[in-house]
Design a protein that fits this description.
5-stranded mixed β-sheet, alpha+beta
Length: 336
């Protein structure tokens, strides 16, 4: 599914009289990694914690005040629980939260999306370093990228423009989630969303596993936004109805590109058919023959499906490919 918004790593500032002792504690007991701030942001994921160490009594930590930055590969709440249990607070004189980070995906005219959000929240347009330097615990930094948010975002993937908003990350994220589609559309002037329906039919009724498998591919290939799921009837033959599971998808892709994906997901690696995945666009079912082109010359339906299956697996990372294959193995067991 097209991922549009998510939070970034959490950052916390500790004032210490003996920063080297606290640094050693973090490296020894928290699996910490000492990096400069840019590298810490580069390696961090959404569930990471970045610790910034300063001298005591720095209510607002400027770049020049930071003595050390440590990347901790655990979530914020777990980090503080471990800190308390291991008595890490003994190394700390004071503590305050750094500004939160929110990531927003842009499509089309990114500058227009950024300008709209800045005006909506009366934010300041700054570089990332300026936002980090100026922001406090009451502020949130909105960062923008044209990359998929389902994958790791590196610092060089982030737009040079960020917005510093005087609102806590929790409250701002809550509001943005209800508005982000409108902001996204600001950058898509002249681009039309396509509404398609994917109908899943399996005579062995393993619909949940087929849906999970489909979702992995929709998510990883950034194919659109799922807006609903329901049971409905299909009519493969005159006077014959069957129950199918239907997924409503909004996509910026040509429906024929979606059909290629679906055809590739219909087959096991040995060519055995494991599911029927029909695509409905504007009340018309798109056939496999509708996607034939010169690259597919001479291929029958199965051969074409296996070709697209191979392309799908080749473009997934090892983790997601493994998930697909495990789901297929579970589905295969129901066929025995």
């Amino acid at each position: 599914m097209l991922s549009i918004i998510r939070s970034g790593p959490k950052m916390v500032v500790f004032g210490c009289k003996n920063p080297k002792d606290f640094e050693l504690f973090l490296l020894s007991y928290m699996q910490g990694l000492k990096l400069d701030i840019d590298s810490a942001l580069d390696f961090a994921i959404e569930s990471s914690t970045i610790v910034l160490i300063t001298e005591p009594n720095k209510n607002i930590a400027r770049y020049k005040d930071i003595i050390s930055s440590i990347l901790i590969p655990i979530p914020f709440d777990e980090f503080f629980a471990r800190m308390f249990n291991l008595k890490g607070y003994e190394f700390v004189n004071d503590c305050h939260i750094a500004p939160g980070i929110i990531l927003i995906r842009t499509l089309g005219d990114g500058d227009k999306i950024i300008e709209t959000i800045k005006n909506e929240y009366n934010g300041k347009l700054l570089t990332l370093h300026e936002s980090l330097d100026e922001g406090t615990y009451q502020d949130t930094i909105i960062c923008f990228t044209d990359k998929s948010l389902d994958k790791k975002i590196n610092i060089h993937d982030i737009n040079s423009k960020t917005i510093l908003v005087n609102m806590t990350c929790f409250n701002l994220l809550k509001r943005l989630r209800t508005q982000v589609l409108r902001f996204l559309n600001e950058g898509l002037i002249g681009v039309e969303w396509n509404e398609v329906y994917i109908r899943i039919y399996d005579r062995y009724s393993e619909y949940r596993k087929h849906y999970e498998r489909l979702s992995v591919v929709l998510d990883n290939f950034d194919l659109g936004i799922i807006l609903g799921e329901t049971w409905t009837k299909d009519y493969p033959r005159f006077m014959m109805s069957i129950l199918v599971y239907q997924v409503r998808l909004f996509t910026l892709k040509n429906p024929k590109e979606i059909k290629k994906i679906l055809l590739g997901l219909e087959y096991f690696e040995n060519g055995e058919r494991l599911v029927d995945l029909d695509l409905i666009f504007r009340n018309k079912k798109i056939s496999w023959s509708d996607i034939l082109n010169k690259d597919c010359k001479g291929l029958d339906r199965k051969q074409l499906g296996l070709k697209f299956r191979e392309e799908i697996l080749n473009n997934l990372d090892d983790e997601m490919k493994g998930k697909i294959l495990r789901l297929e193995e579970d589905i295969r067991k129901t066929r025995i």
